Structures are given as structure tokens and as C-alpha cells.
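Q: Hi! First time doing this. I have a protein sequence and I read that you can turn it into a structure. Is that right? Here it is:
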Amino acid sequence: MRKLFLILVGLIAVNIYAQQDKQADTIINHQVPLIKANKADLLNNVDVIFNTQLGMNNYFADGKYTGSRFEINQFRLEIKGKVYKDKVFFRFRDRYTKNTEVQSVDNMSSSTDLAFIGYTISKKTSIAVGKMTANWGGYEFDMNPIDIYQYNDIVDNSDNFLTGVQFNWIPSKNHSFSAQVLNSRTQTFSEIYQDVPDITEAKFPAAYIGNWNGSFLDGKFKTIYSFSIFQEAEKHGKPVNMYYTALGNQFRTKKWLFQYDFKWSSEDLDRTGVVSTIIPDNILDHAAENTNYVEHWLRAVYSLNEQWKLSAIGMVSTAYWKDVPSDLATSTRMRTAWGVIPTVEFYPIKNFNLKFYASYVGRFYEYSDYSKTYLGQVNNNTGRLMIGVISPLLVL
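A: Yes, that's right. Below is the predicted 3D structure, encoded as C-alpha cells:
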């Protein structure tokens, strides 16, 4: 009986060892990399970023509290990188907090910011084709969108991402230039402007944009300047265009950062759209003609230390309509919008771009006498108290 017991124990031990050996083989097989070394090297040149801004928003209108809710203000998935010996580069970014309707002009979802492929011609020159940022110029638009709590009127109402081609030239480390030829819009003429009398849509509605980035005083003073011409249509054989310039200036010290943008937009057809929204449909049932917009945007940031920053933004946007009836108004001004954005930001982890923020966005709208008397507009203000977290999370 003792011998039989020892034999059974031996058989069980052999069986257990065999099973352990078999499992070990299985584990070893799974340790074969799913991505081979040469593929892993390729991924070293690719970034996957979750651009996020989320938190609790508290809303006010004319000084009265109207409600609160948790919101994902921004979530933009971004994939960018270089392939083939750093010669070919690409960038894709899609916004998940915006509708995904395919646009009628570029056949691309309205939620897609960027989808382009580029080629590095030389150390100083490159070219890119696809949907890209229109290089408006100015520091307001140059910032990552998740770091913006509220845009001024022109940027807030623009098609900021358009499809076309861009050429880049970097003659020195302190200066770079770009030139773009893009679709002037993502939607058709009638979708944006409606049926404007005596206007013929351009066969190739195009935007021509020139941009210059400059750096001076060892990088303490920088500029982002641009000028753009948008060809939209014709009227009685004359071009119907939009002319837009943005002059961005930045000065940085150890503790302070100052940024100032001046923007001017002259629009034969009201592309920004603010003036058109002021005029009731019973007076004008299509986009207004001959509008102007002038804007100022100022941002000051003070770094208390590596983890705490205080900032304040002041902005003003004035909308003009040259076709205001002269017998009813003494000025072409229709509305002036003011904005103030004080903010406190806290970075809990040193050398990592994640921050908690508390910010207030106050907007004040002042209408001209003509707008109030004949168009029924009333001065008003809005507010938004925001508390949340922001990070461009690099996940790969």
C-alpha cells in the first residue's frame, strides 16, 4: 500500500511539473513583442495627445445666477508625428465636443480641426497639404484651444481650420514665414450668406494668407503677424472680398508675460456675422454688406512660483456697418463687446502640464443708439464662473 501511495504521488508530481512547464512555454510565447523593434522605433516619433478642459461652469445673465453644470468644455484627440527619416510629417486633431456634420465644401467633418500631411524639403523649407490651421496671426489664436476660456468675436465666429496647401520657410532661427492658399470656407456660399442680391459666387472661393513669426532680444520680444485676402464673390464685375490682418506681440520676463493682439477685418460680405445677427430678418434677410471689425486683446500672466500663476485678459471688439442709413444714425458703429477674464491656475505636479483653474469670463455688450432705437437691441452682460482641470495629456 505504501508503495502504491508513493507511485501515485510520483505520477501527480510529474503531471504537475509537466503542466507548469507547459504554462511556462505559453508565457514565453506571449512575451514575443507584438510590435517589432523597427515598428517601436517608428512610434517614438508619434505623439498621441488628449487635449482636455473640463470642470464645473456656473452661468450668469445681467448679474443674475441662471444655473450650473459639469461640462467637458474641450476634448480634442490629437495624433501627430514624423515618418520616413523625418521627411514626412502628419497631424490629426478631432474635437469630440462639437457636432460631426460633414461640411459641404471640403467634405470633412466640422469637428476635425487638423488632417494634413507634410513634406520636409530642406532644413529651411517644408510644404503641407490638407485641413490645417489658417495662420491668422496673433497670440490669442496661437494658443492651444484648451487654454482659452473665451475667444474674442472675430476668432470665435471664424472658420479657423480650412483645407488647402501651406509653404513654410525658416531663413534663420529668429524668423519664419508661411504662405497658404486655402478654401475660404467649409460651407457653401448660400449656407453662410443666404441669397444676397446682385452677388455672384466665386468659382474658386480662396483665402490667401501670409504669416511672419519674429523673435528679438534673445526671445524676450516675439511677434506673430499676418495678412489675409478672401475672395468670395463678385458684384457688378467687381470683387467681393474680405481683408483681415492680425498683429500679435509678446514680451516675456522671468516673472511676467504680456501679450497684445490687434485685429482688423474689412468684409464686403459680413463673414464674422455679428452685424448680421443684430439686424432683424424683417429688415435684412441675408448677410449684411460692407462691415468692419476692430479688436484689441491683452493678456498678462504673473508667475508666483513654479506652481501658481495669476492671469488677466481684457478684450474689446467693435462692429461697424457702413450701410447704416445716414438719416437715422451719425455713426457706423453697431455694437461694442467688452470682455474680462481673471484666472488663477495651479500646477500640482512640477514639470508636467496639468493645471487646476478658477476663472471668470465676463462679457458686456453695448449697442449704438441706432441699434437700440431702430433694431430693438438692449445692452446686456453675461458671466461664467469656471472651476476645473486642463491638460494636453501625452499618452503615447
